[in-house]
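Reopening this one. Same input as before:
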Amino acid sequence: MHTPPRQRLERERRHDRRRDPRRRLALPVALAGGAVAALIASSALATDRIDRDERSTRPPTPTTIAAVAERFLPGWRQLAEPLHYTLVQAENASPTLQVRAGTCYAAAAISNSIQDIDIRIRVDGRIVAQDVLFDAYPVAQWCARADTTVTVELRAFLGAGTAQLAFFEDPESARRTDGPLDELSNRLDQHIARSAPRWTPVGDQWRNMYEQPGVTSLQISPSADVCYAVVAVGVSTVRDIDLSARYPDGSERSHDVGADATPLVVVCPDSSEPFDVRVAVTLGHGAVAARVLSRPR
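Same output, byte for byte:
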C-alpha cells in the first residue's frame, strides 16, 4: 500500500525520536532530578530541625581570658591579672608559678592573632600537664604533689602576635585530690575539663595497666533520669583507646572508636539495668585511667 509522503515523513520523525538516546534519558533524568530535589529538601528540613535544637549549638569561640575560664574552668579562682606577651612563631614565653601541695591549678591563654598556642607545665623539666590542641585558647590543669615551682611554657606554634596568660586555682582542690596526684590524673582532669566540664564525677577514678593491647570493663548501675558519660586517657605509650557501652545481652548503646587516646561515650539509659563500658587499648601499652560522670537528663 502506498503511504502518502507527508504521513511517511511523520512516521520517520516519530521513529527517530524513539531512537534518540537523549529522549531515552529524559525520563530517568527527570525522575532522578525529582529524587535529588526531595533529598535536598529532606536534608534541609533535618538540618533546620537540628539547628533549632539548642543542644546542637556550638559554643562561641572564646576571645578573652574570662570567656575561656567561664567555659572550661567554672568556679575556679583567678590568681592574678593576666600576663601579656608578644610572640613570633615558634617562640616560647616561660613564666614560673609557686604552687602548694594538694592544690589544683590551671594555666589558660588566649590570642586573637595567633592561630595555635600550646601550654606545657613542667616540674624539674618533666611535663605534668599540657594542652597542645590546635586552637588559640589552651587550658592546662594539674594538681601539685609538693610545694614547688612550676615552669609554664607558652608557645606560639602557628602564627605571631599578642597573647595573654592567666593562672587559676580550684577552690575544691581537696575533693579533686582524693586520688593519686600524678600525670595520668592530670591528663584525665584535663580531658574532663575540655570535653565534659559541667558533668559531675561518680565514684572513684578507674585504672588499669595494659601490658599489651586488650580489653577490660567497668560496670555502671544507673539511676532514673540520669545520663552518664565515661572518659578515658592513657600514658604517652598508649596511642589508641576505644570505649563501648553495652548491655548484658550484647547490645551496644554508644561507642567511641576514633583513632585517639581520649575517648568519651555518653549513655542515657532507659532503665536501671546495669551496663558495662568496655575499655580497649588497640594500640600501645601502659596505664589507662577512666572516670564515670553524670548529669540529669
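So the earlier flakiness isn't reproducible anymore. For the record, The first strand starts at residue 77 and ends at 78.
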